[in-house]
Write a structure and sequence with these properties.
The protein is 53% helix and 11% strand. The protein is mainly alpha-helical. Strands 1-2 form a two-stranded antiparallel sheet.
């Protein structure tokens, strides 16, 4: 059985592969130039890349579709976790509120954000909630550079 979040993830991966093929085709036309600078003091070299032609606008559309499907996959996962806990049934409010939380700062430091976190995760098993909380950007060592923050 394939769950909705898996379908969304598969679709995101399809968009990613499509983007890869499009970028490779664009790059094969050599719409950029490269050069290397050496820094003797720092003992490293810098490789520069300059676009001569702007990438096609469709690249942005493909990236947008990919990110949308990734985000939707996470949100679908939350609803599916609630359905598992509710043995196939959830209230309309849990269904509408189920959303994968992504917080750059610890929501327990802000009552409004904490209420939002609890609302998004209220339908799921406490163990699943703890795992999701552990995955939050604010729990990372380098949280200010976390890609989802």
């Amino acid at each position: 059985m394939i769950f909705h979040h898996e379908r969304r993830l598969q679709r995101a991966l399809h968009h990613l592969e499509s983007l890869k093929a499009e970028v490779e085709a664009w790059a094969d036309e050599c719409p950029y130039r490269t050069w290397v600078d050496f820094d003797v003091d720092a003992r490293y070299k810098l490789t520069w890349l300059e676009a001569i032609d702007q990438p096609p606008a469709r690249f942005g559309l493909i990236v947008g579709d990919c990110v949308h499907n990734l985000r939707s996959s996470l949100d679908n996962l939350m609803l599916e976790l609630a359905l598992i806990r509710g043995r196939g049934r959830v209230s309309k409010s849990v269904e509408g509120d189920s959303q994968f939380p992504i917080f750059a700062a610890d929501p327990s430091l802000n009552p409004k954000r904490l209420a939002e976190f609890k609302r998004m995760t209220r339908g799921i098993n406490p163990r699943a909630k703890a795992i999701i909380e552990g995955l939050q950007p604010y729990n990372r060592v380098d949280r200010f550079h976390h890609p989802s923050a």
